[in-house]
Each structure stands twice: as structure tokens, then as C-alpha cells.
Amino acid sequence: MICSERSAVYTGTMTAELGHFATLLAFFVAILQAVVPMVGATRNQASWMAVGVPMAIAQFLLVGFAFAMLTIAFVTSDFSVRLVAANSHSLKPMLYKVSGVWGNHEGSMLLWIFILTTYGALVAWFGQNLPDRLKARVLSVQAMIAVAFLAFMIFTSNPFERLEFPPIDGNDLNPLLQDPGLAFHPPFLYMGYVGLSMSFSFAIAALIEGRVDAAWARWVRPWTLLAWVNLTIGIALGSWWAYYELGWGGWWFWDPVENASFMPWLIAGALLHSSIVVEKRDTLKSWTILLAILAFSFSLIGTFIVRSGVITSVHAFANDPERGVFILIILSVAIGGALTLYALRARELRTTSAFSVISRESGLVLNNLLLVVAAAVVFSGTIWPLVAEITTGRKLSIGAPFFELAFTPFMVAIAMALPIGAILPWKRADLSRSMQPLWGVLALSIALGALVWTMQTGGRMLAPIGITLAAWLVLGAMVELGTRAKLGKASLSETLRRLRNLPRSDWGKSVAHAGFGLTIFGIASITAWEVEDIRVAHVGDRFTVGAYEFQFNGVTQANGKNYTTDIGNFTAFKDGVLVAELRPEKRFYPVQGMPTTEAAIDQSLTRDLYLALGDEQNGGWAVRTYIKPFANWLWIGALVMALGGVLSLTDRRYRVAATARKTPDAVPAE
User: Fold this and answer.
1) How far apart, in whole angstroms, are the C-alpha atoms of residue 604 and residue 580?
2) Does the pLDDT at position 345 exceed 70?
3) Domain boundaries along the sequence of the chain
4) Closest of 106, 509, 150, 54 to residue 307, by C-alpha
């Protein structure tokens, strides 16, 4: 038994030391990878350029090994590691022991770097057909980013630091993070954040080389798509977590950290559309490069917001300002250097084609401008309180009303423009002719909005407008596919054949646009028709909220693995018929001394019954009840958008280093 205990301590100690050693080795490999391939590309020395591939793979393996060592420390509850002692507990469920690895600043930074090196390794493995110089420079720029963040982690945020006197048990993970949604939310967000580093690396490599063409756009597009898909899923998971875990009934609060993930998502969307123009029409090259720089720049700004300690948020890692200064230096060098290089070389990226005001190119430019300005609005509202405090010493708060008023018009404009822009031909278009397939859709969408307006009694105009836009987007996407397949102009078998042979990127575009429409429908429905009731309820009380009656049957106490809980017992009726039994919880985590609210939600496609249990008051309990119409369509829409991105990724033309495989019966992409 004594030998076994000594073995466990020894293994834990070596785990931390091996992880730290692997991180140091990765740092030195990253330095070499940043220098050698770049010099080789400059001197046209093939052997030097080729070094980037094994170095990228070695860096990935080393950081992956370090991440595995930290994970083992958490899983085995090795409290000799300071990070484990501060963020874990022996009684914590295994899922949260694992998610505790990235539920803190140091561990999440190691995950950030691991994902960064994974992207570099993917380029090394699957970029065989990339031009040698471009590939070498991309891997070199990617390594420069790794050098910066490995240095930040090693010198300011070492996750493998040990305690001289380990505690008997740990301090547990923040109870708000002990949730499945938050277990998977950060990895998806980081895969999005960090994935935009690949677009950045391709942009910097292209600026150095002075060449941007259709092939470059095909190479950079899959990485942007992959990052955008992961950001979409990550943001949706975070929204879903806020909806059911925080107990306040909302799904978006315009929190600075929420905004930090939303801004790069908007810019990445603009970059995706802009890269299409580069690929198809060999224009907007300079603008596309700038968007690639801005997309990753906003990811870095998000990292600064989360980790600098300049803001307070339930999502943020509270840290000392010295770490914020280090990140600010990284941010300044990366963004400042990239924009300086862009200013020096952008004029060389001359366009070779022109287009008229009415054309698909113009539609994509309008889409780009709306997305970028929307991101600028979010950035202004997020950063202005900090700027005001620094310059005037006054504390300001910019909340949801500002963002909803300033941001919503741009989303409305995008929704209005998308179906039209998607159906316009390239270079020059006749608007009246192009609109012919859409007139019926427009009339039907307006009719649906008018129907909703006449049926609702005293409701907000947001619902009719939102449903009109949602129908316009979904039906417009269907019409676009039907037009491409010559629906109504060819036989059914020919139409089905053409649909089957449409490029997957076209299917992906239509599915993503339809998903955007479904999300708008969910947002408009929740915002316009939600019913809220807040009261102190006593056992036996029966109260009405909207069309439903709720009966409070009592509260029972129970013990979880690492918490105690009060569980409310409610039954819901509609027209006297039992429709749901709800069990909201009020949990208390004794190690952290922190309560949490676990809302009870009865979900369906048409409504959510949402009930949160508050504190005991004067012999009763605080109860917050919501009826949320069509709430789930918000997240269904987000998943459909992500599915559209995945469909586009499976298009052979957009796989890294792949070229289009033409078949005799293929329908050409537009």
C-alpha cells in the first residue's frame, strides 16, 4: 500500500515535469519553424523550406503530449499541481475533471496553443499540393504565433507549476462551469478563434509573396469555413448554456466576452463571401486579405478581453494586469505588423476584372460592408466603457438596448439582401429579370408577416418583421436551388439529376442562408411573444402564466456528488390537462461556497415552459416562470448554419490542395 501511494505521487510529479519539458521543447521547435522555412522561401532553398513540415508535426506532438499530461493530472486529482488544486476536487464528476483542464486561464491557454499547432500540422499533412514557398511561409507565420503564445504561457501562465505542500483536496471548479454545455463550449470556440490564424497566415504569406489569385482563395477558404463552423457551434453552445444554466431566462446578454466571440464570427462571414469573389472573378483581392487580417485580429482582441482582467464577466478569466500587458504586446505586434505589411503591399494586388453595380459581386460587397460595420458597432459598444474609464475616470455601462438598436438594422439589411445577391449572375445583371423567381417568394413572405400582424393582439412589430425576413431567407434559399435545377423548366428526373449534381458548396450556401432565417425566426418569436412571471409561491399555490397553469407541489432536498440541492416540484396544465412536470433546482457547492440555479425546461418545437427556483422567502419560494414561443428554433437555426458550412467543406474544390474534379453531368458552380 505504501509503495502504491509513493508510485502515485511519483507519477503525478513526473507528469507535470514531462508536460513542462514538452512545452519548452515545443517553444524551441516553434522558434526554428518560424525562422528556417521563411529564410528558405526567401532564398529559394528547397531543403530549408521542407523543414517546416516535420517541425510543424513535432510541435503538434509536443504540445499534444503536454496537454495529455495536464489532463492526466486532473483526472488523477494530482493536487501537487497548483492548477489542479485550484480548479478540481476529488468528488467532482469525471466529465468536469476533464473539462477542468480548460476551465481556467492556464489550461485554456494550453488548449489554445494545442489547437494552433493542430492547424499547423494539418497544413503539413494535407497541403502537399500547395506551392513550396507559400506553404513554407504559411507554416512559418503560424509558428510565429505559436512562439508568442508559448512564451506567454511559459513565462506568465505555467500550467505545470507545483505546490511545495499539496492540499488534501482541491478547491473545485467554478460551479457555473460544471455543466455539459460549458464542457464543450470552449473547445469549439477555440477551434474557431484559432482556426482564423490559418486565414491570417495565408494572408501574410500572400502579402510577402505579392500574389493572390483564385488558387489562393481555394486554399484559404476551407480554413475560414472550418473556423466559422466551429465558432457558430461554440457561440450556439454558449447561448444555450446561458439560457438554461444561469436561470435568468435569457440567451444573449451582449456581455463583452460574448461579443468577443461574435465579432470574429461576423468578420469571418464577410471573409467567406469575399473569398468567393476572388476565386470566381479575380477581384476584391486586397479587401479579402484585409478581412483575413481583421478576422484573426478580432480573435486576438477577444483573447485580450478575456484574459487581461480589464473587464468582469462570468465568462472571463480574472487575471493580473501584467498578463494583460503581455497579451497587449502580442496583439500590437501581430496586428500592427500585419497592417503595416498590408499597407506596403496592398497596391500590388491589382484586380483584373470589373463588374457593374447590379451583379453578384456588388451583392457580395454589400454583404461584406454590412457585416464589417455590424462588427464595428459591436466593437464600439464593447470597448467604449473601457476607453471612457481610462480617459475620463467615469464608469459607463452599455447594455442590450444600445446593441439591439444599433446592431439590428444591419442584420435586417443583410437578411433582405441575401436571397437577391445569391441569385444575381456574375459581372452584370438585369435586376428585374433576376428577381422574377423571387417575386412570388417576396409576396408570400410579406403575406405571412401580415397574417402574424393581424393575428397578434397588441404584440410588437418585431414578430411580423422577423417572420417576414425568416420566410424570405428560407424560401429564397429553396428558390435558388430550384432555379439552378431548372425546376418547372425541365422534367422532374432532370431536375432531380441537376439537384443531385449541384456542387456541395452551393448546397451549403443555401442551407446556411436558410439556417440564418430560422435563427431570425427564433429570435423574433422569443423577443416579441415571451411571457414572464416573477412571484413568491407557497406550497399548494396554483398560478396562471399565459395560457398555462402551474401548481407548486413542494420542495425536497437531495445530495449530488459534490453539491446539495433544493428541488422544486411543479406541474403545468393547459386547459385543465397535465402537460409537464418541472423540477427546477437551487444547488449549493460547499467547497466553493457558491449557489447555482438549474432551470427546468419543458421543450417543444412550438414553445418552452421555463421555470427557475430562487431563494426561500417568508415561507415561500421565489419563482421565475417564462413561456418562450419557438425558442428552440434559435439553436436549430445555428446548427443548420453550421451544417451548411460542413456541406461546403465536403466540396472537393474547397479541400486544401484539391482541385475540381469535373464530371460530364456536373452542374457548374455559380
Assistant:
1) 11
2) yes
3) 1-173, 174-349+364-373, 403-528+636-654, 531-629
4) 106
